[in-house]
Amino acid sequence: MSDKQPPAKRTYQSTEQRQSATIEAVVHLCAEQDPSNLTTARIADEVGLSQGALFKHFPNKNSLWESVAGWVAEQLTQRVFSVADQYEHADQALEAMFLAHIGFIARHPGIPRLMLGELQKPGNSAAKRIVRETLANYRQKVIALLNLGIEKQRITPTIDTEAAAVLYLGAIQGLVVQGMIGGDIRSLEQTAPRIFRLFSASFQEIPDAPQA
Fold first, then answer.
1. 8 within domain boundaries
2. pLDDT tens, 10-31?
3. Is 194 domain-assigned?
4. Across residues 76-83, what is the average pLDDT?
5. pTM of the model
6. What angle do the packed helices 61-76 and 15-30 form, to 10 degrees?
7. pLDDT digits over 33-78, tens only?
8. If exposure means fewest CB atoms within 10 Å of the residue's CB, which of 3, 111, 114, 148 is most exposed?
9. Ranges for the HTH tetR-type domain (predicted)?
10. Shortest CA distance to 105 belongs to which of 79, 130, 126?
């Protein structure tokens, strides 16, 4: 009687599961190398597929990058933007969103490289448009919260909301760049609250009401 064991059955994965695993692999690999040098062969190897099998799920590299950009946009909406909706006061919502964004980047350090890489590419690919639209929506979200804070007298009415939104996003981007230079993205979560306090100092002082 043979002791030979039957071959193990391969776990079946749906197209959606394969696509999700591939997108996550791209985000992971972008933390380790320049996204512009990331090949489909390397991606396929990371998820245990042949290049031919990979292209069954994504017709070409551009469609894969579009899916990755869409995933990033969706994650920002679910994990960062939605945090603001949990707070009654706009200033608290802004802080929570700031910290959630830094936490998101700390867990997925490949995302800044990926987004910056797309913005630097020539042309106007679908992935690039998604990144631009995501950043524009982010800016509008910040401006809307600042205006709400002004309305509720939690933020000084003299603040330049357009400039403040640029500074808000710039603070996040600056933190990320410093983390990349230092090689320690995860430490940003400890630094982020201090940076936000400096930002928020610009709008916390409410002018005294005029005397009757």
1. no
2. 455 577 888 888 999 999 999 8
3. yes
4. 87
5. 0.82
6. 80
7. 888 888 999 999 998 888 888 888 888 888 999 999 999 999 888 8
8. 3
9. 16-76
10. 79
Residue 33 lies inside a defined structural domain of this protein: no
Domain of residue 131 covers: 61-204
Enumerate the H helices of 36-152 as residue ranges: 40-47, 51-57, 61-76, 82-84, 90-107, 110-120, 126-151
Mean pLDDT, the chain, whole residue set: 86
In angstroms, the CA 20 to CA 60 distance is 16
172's enclosing H/E stretch is: helix 161-182
- In order of 133, 169, 177, 186, the CA distances from 173 in angstroms are 17, 6, 6, 14
- Establish if 135 belongs to a structural domain: yes
Closest-CA residue to 127 (of 30, 48, 56, 31): 30
Contacts (Cβ under 8 Å, ≥6 apart) of 197: none
Q: Are 112 and 176 in contact (CB under 8 A)?
A: yes
Asked if 125 and 118 touch (Cβ cutoff 8 Å), the reply is yes
pLDDT at 208: 52
Number of structural domains in the chain: 1
Q: What's the average model confidence in pLDDT over 130-143?
A: 94
Spatial neighbors of 66 by CB under 8 A, at least 6 apart, are: 125, 126, 127, 130
What is the C-alpha to C-alpha distance for residues 19 and 104, in angstroms, rounded to an integer?
A: 21
Q: For the packed helices 188-200 and 161-182, what is the interaxial angle rounded to 10 degrees?
A: 160
Cβ neighbours of 79 (radius 10 Å): 15
